[in-house]
Structure formats: structure tokens, C-alpha cells
Write a structure and sequence with these properties.
This protein has 236 residues and is of the alpha/beta class. Helices cover 28% and strands 25% of the residues.
Length: 236
């Protein structure tokens, strides 16, 4: 949540599709809910049995239906997906990327982020609580065509996972140096075991996240993870 705030998201709608009650994120998110940054929806009634249409797409559609008029743009992303700009690590970089691409493509109603998989066994270090500080290898380029969208909710006819069905406008991909999706699969491809030669061959080191990790670590240590603090930390 703090990473998304740093990236420039002004509000987050969390759809919590837990199966066991102990997996619920409601208590962990309480402070962000109370301050108004997060709107929480218990989606457990759609969690089991899981299906893409019944669990995931239905959550995206519900968010557009209930909250679409509150935003000029929305993004539909999963908990292991981090929008990232390789050339801009300053606060609110997502806002600048959306502004840049939408200005050059004014008829676009959907802007899509290409999918870079971060793979390999995560570093086992209690001093690295953030997922993005534990996996530092990624695929050489976009891993597959499974993009994730940032879209104008009032221009969407029906939600979908990778490309919405649009009522108006068209879709444009972000250039990967402007905005991409860092997708943290970790050790999934090696069945959660140790790294394999195949995984090493598929990936390359990528340390571009380090400046943001450092800023968020400093925020956490000072217990002031606010937008105002991010600005002061970055610029003073």
C-alpha cells in the first residue's frame, strides 16, 4: 500500500478474497482504512471455489460499478504486481506516466503495462520485509502478453483481467521504459525450491528498485509513511 502511495495512487480499493478467516487483511489495513487511503471490501464469498470470472473479474467489475465515477483513471492490479518506471523513481511517477501517454494518445481509454516477471528464490532475510527487496532478478523482456490496464472507468463496457471491453476509445501500451509491471512470481516456476540453471538463464539482475526501497525503509523506520513525508524525504 505504501509503495502504491509513493507511485502516485490517490486511493486503493482492496478486494480481500481470503478463504480462511485468518488470511483476512482487514486488521492489517485498519490504519490505512481509518485515514481514508484504502476502501476495503470483503470478497471472501467469491473466493472459494476460485475462478477468474467469478472471483477476479467480478471484483474488477464491482469496483468500476461502485466507484468508477470517483476517478478519472483506475488500475486493476494484483497484490504481487508493482507498477514501475525504469527512468523515473521520484514520487508519483505513475501520474506522470499516465499524463505523458494520454497526452500523446488523447483517444486512448486504456493504457497497459507490460509484464516483467521477477523470478527466483526470495532472499531469506528478516531485515527485508518488503517483497520487492527480496527478489532482484527479472525476465530479459516482457514475459508474456498478459498486460495489466490503467483505464478510464467511465469508458469501460465490461471489466476483464488484461484488457477491458471498452465502450469508447482504444488501448495503448506504455513503452517499457516509461511504465511497466514488476510482477513478483518468485520461486513459483521452480515449485518454490532453490534456483535452477533454467531460472538463471531466463533472468538478469535488476536493481532499479533500490532507491524506492531505501525511501520506503526510511519512512517505515520513522513511522511517518505519508505522502507529505515522501515529498520531504525525497527533496530536502
Amino acid at each position: 500500500m505504501y509503495y502504491l502511495r509513493y507511485a502516485g495512487f490517490q486511493h486503493v480499493y482492496v478486494y480481500d478474497a481470503y478463504v480462511m478467516k485468518s488470511e483476512s487483511q482487514a486488521q492489517a489495513l485498519k490504519s490505512l482504512i481509518d485515514e481514508g487511503f484504502v476502501t476495503y471490501t470483503d470478497w471472501s464469498h467469491r473466493a472459494y471455489p476460485y475462478s477468474i470470472s467469478g472471483t477476479q473479474v467480478s471484483a474488477y467489475q464491482d469496483c468500476i460499478t461502485r466507484f468508477g465515477r470517483d476517478s478519472l483513471w483506475q488500475a486493476a492490479i494484483d497484490i504481487d504486481e508493482y507498477p514501475f518506471s525504469p527512468k523515473d523513481n521520484q514520487p508519483f511517477f505513475v501520474q506522470r506516466a499516465v499524463k505523458e501517454l494520454s497526452k500523446s494518445h488523447p483517444a486512448a481509454s486504456e493504457l497497459t503495462m507490460q509484464n516483467y516477471l521477477f523470478l527466483g528464490k526470495p532472499l531469506d532475510d528478516n531485515k527485508r520485509p518488503m517483497l520487492m527487496d527480496r527478489i532482484w532478478r527479472r525476465t530479459h523482456g516482457p514475459a508474456n502478453p498478459l498486460v495489466k490496464p490503467i483505464y478510464r472507468p467511465l469508458k469501460v463496457r465490461h471489466a476483464n483481467v488484461h484488457h477491458n471491453h471498452l465502450a469508447h476509445g482504444h488501448t495503448v501500451n506504455f513503452a517499457v521504459d516509461l511504465l511497466r509491471m514488476n510482477h513478483y512470481w518468485g520461486a513459483r516456476l521452480q515449485n518454490w525450491g532453490d534456483d535452477t540453471p533454467e531460472i538463471i538463464e531466463k533472468t538478469q539482475p535488476d536493481n532499479l528498485m533500490k532507491p524506492i526501497v531505501k525511501i520506503l525503509q526510511d519512512c517505515a523506520s520513522q513511522c511517518v509513511p505519508s505522502s507529505d513525508y515522501l515529498y520531504r524525504k525525497q527533496w530536502n
